[in-house]
Every structure is written in C-alpha cells, then in structure tokens.
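Handoff note, outgoing to incoming analyst
You'll be picking up this chain. Sequence as last confirmed:
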Amino acid sequence: MSDGTTGRHAEVSRRGVLKGSAVITTAAALPGVLGSAQAAAAGNRPNVLVIVTDDQPKETDWATKKTRDWLAGRGVEFTQAHSTTPLCAPSRSSIFSGRYAHNHGVRDNGHAYNLDQNTTVQRHLKQAGYRTGLFGKYLNSWQIADNPPHFEEWALLQPGYVDGTYNDNGTVRQIPGYTTDVIAERTLAFLDKSATDDRPWFAYVSPYAPHGPNTPEADYAETPVPEWEGRPSVPEPDRADKPVYVQNAANTPADGQAVRQRQLRTLLSVDDAVKAFHDKLAQLGQLENTLVIYVADNGFHWADHGLLGKAAPYRPAHEIPLYVSWPAGGLGSGASDDRIVGNIDIAPTILHAAGVQPDTPQDGRSLLSDFRRDHILTEWWKAGTNGPKDTWASYVGTDKQYVEYYDLHTDESGQEVGTGRVTFREYYDLAADPYQLTNKLYQATPEDEQRLGIPQLASRLAADRRS
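Most recent structure output, in case you need it:
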C-alpha cells in the first residue's frame, strides 16, 4: 500500500547493533496539532510516552477504565486501528520503524536482529536530542545481555510476571516483584529525572500483560470479572468454509472465557501503572505537552472460530486498542476517529510531533495529518515448514476483507521462501457479517467473484505486498 516511501531493510549484525478529516472533535483540533508540530521544530518539542501492551484485544475496556478516562476521555480513540502483522516481534518492529514487516524484515518472532536499528524512532529522537528510555519487553529473540540500541536508559525484561530477569542498564539481574509494577517504578524514576534534565524525553513502556500465562498481580488474582457469553464467532458451529487449520481448531467458549478472565485481571495492574504515569506528569507540569500513545502489539482470539491466540487474519487478532493524547497539540478534549490506521502510523506520528524529518523510509502516515486510507494491509508468515497454517496476507477495508494464503515460509535467516502459490482465499462482507462467519469465496463461481470485485482486490493486495 502506498502510504509512504518504502524500501528494503538493511541487514545489521547481531551485536551491531484521524471519517477523512471526520475526526469527531472540534474543528480547531487538527490545525492546533499541525501548529504544535511546527512549534516543535522551533524548540517546544513534546515529551513522548508510548505504552505497548502484549496481546491485548479490544473489548477489554472494563479493565482499563483509568486509561480510557485519561487517554480516550481526554485524547482521541482510534476506533479502526490494526496491527499490520498480528504477532509480537513483527508488530513491535513496525511500531519502532513505521514500516510493514515485509520491509523491516522481522517477519516472525525469531529474527529480531533483522530490524535495521537506523530506521527506528528511538534513533531519530536520540539523534535529535531526546533522552530515551525503554522499560519492559523489547523484541522476541533479542538476547537479554544485548543492550537495546539508541536507548540511554533501560530495564529490558525477559518476558515473565514475577521476579523477572532484566537487562538493567547493561547488567543482567533479577529484580524482585511483579513485573508490571517494576516497569512502572522504573518509568516513574525516568520521568522524575526531567526535573533536573531539561531535554525532551521519549519513554517506551512495554509491560508483559496480558500475554499468557496472564498471571495477575496477587491483589487482583481473585477479582470478579464481568461475565461474557462470547460473540457469534465463538461458538461458530460450521467452519467448512474456512481453511483446514480453522476447521480443526478445537477451543471452546469456556476456553475463551478463561483466557479473557485472566487477561482482564492482568490488565488491572497496567491500568494502575497508566494512572501513576498521569499523576507523575501532572506533578511535573508535563501533562499538557506530553504526547501519549497507548496501543497493543496485536489482538487475541477468545475462541473465535475455535482459535485461541493471534496470528490469524480475523478481526479479533489484528484489531487493537489505540488512544492518543496531547493537549498542547490539540488532542485533549476527548474524541473518536474512525479512520483506518495501523501500528505503522505510530513512528511517523511521533516524529511529526517532534518536528523530526525521518531520513529513512516509512510506510505509515502521521495520525496528526488529515491522511485517510481506504484499506490497510495485514500480513503474517509461517516460521519454517512446520505448523498447520500457511503464510497469509489480507486487504482490510471498513466494509470488506479479502485474504490470500500462500505456499511461503521464513527460512533460518528470516527471509521469505517458497513458491508463493495461493493455497486458500477468503472474502468477508464486514458490514453484513462483522463476525466473519461466511466466507463468500467458498464454492463461489467466477461470476460471483466478478460481482464481489475479487480480481481487483487480488491485484491491489499484490501491489501492497510489493510496495
């Protein structure tokens, strides 16, 4: 998709390392944002706080009330936000670089070192004079002893919930306590340093919650969670129109309910941390001119179509919560934006606000602009030759989704190999069938395909994958 200039990633060594303008808000908001971005270039640059949760789907509002009160209630909620690759490391690499996975090169969870660190938002901000910090999870397969490039301060978590192992500013050690709390404490200490360091700062904060095993903090271990009876996609009885791996999926509504309960309980601690960040920024007098972005790396199936997890082309996996607040930039009154946006838009947004012109290619566009796309590309790769699911790519619009599966996988270096032959296709009318129960390409005739516009969608998808 031609969202911006693209290009192939550069290899690095392991160690070398807002409807159109129909945002529902005041008419003055967008010009205020643009004006503030211009002011940033003149020296009044915002601080940047990015909070990335792990495997958080939509429909988790019950557990994040404080977060929503601040960032959605006094910011902007993007109601059609997507993870362009619904898998941890590729998604996080897209957040850092503003690029699709087929361009940044981290196609699976095993090849974090394929990310060209020169393309990252942290590199651009550090070079522009920002103080940079990383607290929490970084990239799957990144070695814990390796320091994260372009961060001045960090507590890099080896994924876990209790008494976690961290790379603490270059020293690998265990830090006792619940990891969400430890990450919050380290972030608050980083923010406190701005009382004596007048540089603008960038903090990337990434708790492990609500990733499996979804271990809640002791105080929330028995917290009652509202009952949930599922949605039409959860007990879907007939999946003959789906690919074989979905036909064979055996997770039950009870399985989905159990994961949902655990995820919500772990998110309560994240909600506490976000409230603490709000209060600290208010105490420091930095609440107005801090750009805060809250996003999940991907969504999660609660037994939708029999699936638990992510990495599938269906909506629960790639639709994500995304809130942005920046009162000094015009994003502070509470608004809803229905544009199709993605994690690839986060880095361009940050650099726009900071008045930094990227010198490396980006596929995303700033959320502070009036850019509007009619669809977005989502993609995922099979890692190696094992596993039941083929590599897939998808055209996702507001009212339709078209999916192709391919004979492709990643090799030992994370590169794409295979014939590329299309092995299965799906098309969903999202307006009439939001839960994706009926694949209209199942037993479709050539006339049906023409009526649905499949040739045009296939051509567009192919172009997106090449861009």
